[in-house]
Design a protein that fits this description.
The chain has a six-stranded mixed β-sheet. With 197 residues, the protein is α+β, with helices and mostly antiparallel strands. The chain folds into two domains: 131 residues, Nuclear Transport Factor 2, Chain: A (Roll), CATH 3.10.450; 36 residues. 11% of the residues are buried. The chain is 52% helix and 29% strand. The chain contains six helices and six strands; from the N terminus they run αααββαββαββα.
Length: 197
């Protein structure tokens, strides 16, 4: 009877790991993603860590968009081809199939235009990954780029978007005003010559 009871208890707990085991596995996968893809330039790791398609929650056109895993390779390749990257993981928090990682991204460009736009960058980032079957299936990306050259670029772009049309309108108004001033004396002299006749 005791043997049967022990076997039944054993069957109940087979395949059930200790509490938090799944979270720890997912944290290790997320850590490996950063270390391999962003710190070491190993794009092959993406095939192992990211589902063939995943959902991205980012800025611009990447809000709630379904993307192929190949997109992660393109994003990383863009930066690796234009500089060197390193980073460090500050901390990770996991709950169920979600892992939040706060990490530091360091980028040193080797192309002239990126050096001009801001040079060496250091950005704190928080990503949240959703895992399914050991693969990343959803990504939330939150960068703190307010202190970076990207923020400066956005400011300058906004300045030009607002300033250029304003200057064009000012020049047009000045030209119309000037034309009106030149035309006004001619109209007065034409009226005067008609009354003299």
């Amino acid at each position: 009877m005791r043997i049967v009871l022990v076997l039944l208890i054993g069957l109940v707990f087979v395949g059930v790991g200790y509490p938090g085991e799944l979270e720890e596995q997912n944290k290790a996968l997320a850590r490996r993603f950063y270390e391999e893809v962003w710190f070491k330039n190993n794009p092959a790791a993406i095939d192992e860590l990211v589902a063939p398609t995943y959902i991205a929650h980012d800025i611009g056109t990447r809000k709630n968009s379904m993307e192929p895993a190949e997109e992660q390779k393109k994003i990383a390749a863009f930066f690796w081809e234009r500089g060197t990257m390193t980073g460090s993981i500050d901390y990770q928090i996991a709950e169920g199939d979600l892992v939040a990682t706060r990490w530091q991204w360091h980028f040193k460009p080797n192309v002239w235009w990126m050096k001009i736009l801001g040079g060496e960058e250091h950005i704190p980032i928080i990503n949240v990954f959703r895992f399914r079957d050991g693969k990343i299936v959803e990504v939330w990306n939150h960068r703190h780029d307010i202190d970076t050259a990207q923020a400066n670029f956005i400011f300058v772009k906004g300045l030009f978007v607002g300033l250029v049309p304003s200057v064009v309108l000012l020049v047009l108004m000045f030209l119309l005003w000037r034309r009106q001033r030149v035309a006004a004396p001619n109209q007065r002299s034409n009226k005067q010559s008609k009354t003299d006749v």
